[in-house]
Amino acid sequence: LKEKFTMLVRYATLEDVKYIDDLRKKESHSLGFIPKMAFESAITGQKTTGNRWSTTCNDKLWVIEENKDLVGYLLMSFGQWARITHIAIQEDARMIERGRKLLTEGVNYGHLVRGRTTFVSGCANDLPSNYFWKAVGWKKLGNRNGKHHSNIWKSNSKRQVNVYHYQQGGLFFNDQHQN
Q1: pLDDT for the residue numbered 80
Q2: Sequential DSSP letters for 72-100
Q3: CB of 76 closer than 8 Å to CB of 50
Q4: In whole angstroms, what is the distance from residue 170 CA to residue 179 CA?
Q5: Among 175, 179, 63, 173, which residue's Cα sits nearest to residue 119?
Q6: DSSP string, 97-143
Q7: I need a surface site. Which of 46, 95, 127, 152 has the fewest CB within 10 A?
Q8: SS3 11
């Protein structure tokens, strides 16, 4: 008998924040630091710390469930273009389909709801995650210096970050067109 898996991508709720923050901490060597309140703001739509121009948060946060268990999340920021701030799948659940499903949801939301056609993401040059961005069809534009960062490989370094770009030219980036 082959076990059937059901994947569901949905907006994150405040009840999901503990899982998301725990996963972010486990993956901090590749994700970097974002405070827990940033996840909460993306869910509520309200900034918890002051910005003199606006208290509205333009970020959006999704989680992916498999058989009702959380296995990852996607945090996107919406400004002039849409930026993938974090995308993470827990280590024991990593398969390209899960990451692709999260990314598809975020890109479709960015395009259909926010009117964005340009999407960007950064990935440290020394991470295997670079293969993911290539596999889902994002183009590497170049690289930039990362921020001052402590990680498990080097005590204090400025890592090179590859910058990836996706241009939405219609609605072809959806579940029907995946391999």
Answers
A1: 81
A2: EEEEEEESSSEEEEEEEE-GGG--HHHHH
A3: no
A4: 18
A5: 173
A6: HHHHHHHHHHHHHHHHTT---EEEEEEETTSTHHHHHHHTTPEEEEE
A7: 152
A8: strand
Of 46, 43, 47, 80, nearest in space to 62 by CA: 43
Residue 106, CA atoms < 13 Å, CB-side half-sphere: 31
What is the model's pTM? Answer: 0.82
Residue matched to tokens 């939405």: 168
Name the β-bridge partners of 84.
76, 121
Cβ contacts of 176 within 8 Å, gap of 6 or more: none
Assign 30 a pLDDT band (cuts: 50, 70, 90): confident
Q: For the ranges 10-14, 74-78, 145-149, 162-166, which has the lowest average pLDDT?
A: 145-149
Determine the average pLDDT of the residues in 114-129: 90
Backbone angles phi, psi at 118, to 5 degrees: -115, 130
Taking the C-alpha atoms of residue 131 and residue 61, their distance in angstroms, rounded to an integer, is 23
